[in-house]
Amino acid sequence: MSGYAIDPCDQCEEMIQPFLDRELSEEERQVAESHLDGCDYCRKRYKFEERLRRYVRQAVTESMSPELKAKLAELRTPLI
User: Fold this and answer.
1) 21-62 pLDDT per residue, tens
2) Residue 80 is assigned to a structural domain of this protein
3) How crowded is the C-beta side of 75, counted as CA atoms within 13 Å?
4) SS3 37
5) pLDDT band per the 50, 70, 90 thresholds, residue 69
6) Is 15 a domain residue?
7) What letters, b where the CB count within 10 A reaches 16 and e where it falls short, cover 4-13?
8) Is residue 2 part of a domain?
9) Does residue 69 lie in a domain region?
10) How far is C-alpha 32 from the geometric centre of its chain's CA atoms?
11) How far is the CA of 12 from the CAs of 6, 19, 35, 44, 58, in angstroms?
12) How far is CA 16 from CA 4, 68, 70, in A?
């Protein structure tokens, strides 16, 4: 044993993605929720990740206008 305590914010950071993916055990979920309830910093990080996921899901489903596609095609540089 190293004698060092595990930083609860580091532990929570490792759990955020599995928490959002609903991959945690019941015990792990309770640990994460308890920490998020009491830590403003980690709660803000969680909410950011949650909003980012929602934005990405929405962006994937929205179709791109032909004009925007053409502008993006003009910006491409050829691979050499």
Assistant:
1) 999 999 999 999 999 999 999 999 999 999 999 998 888 887
2) no
3) 6
4) helix
5) confident
6) yes
7) eeeeeeeebe
8) no
9) yes
10) 15
11) 10, 9, 7, 12, 26
12) 22, 35, 38
Backbone angles phi, psi at 34, to 5 degrees: -60, -45
Q: How many domains does the chain have?
A: 1
Tokens of 23: 């991959």
pLDDT at 2 over 60: no
For residues 69 and 64, give the distance between their C-alpha atoms in angstroms, rounded to a whole number.
7
Rounded Cα–Cα distance for residues 49 and 52 (Å):
5
- For residue 50, the enclosing domain spans 8-75
Outline where the chain has alpha helix (H). Answer: 8-20, 26-38, 40-61, 66-75
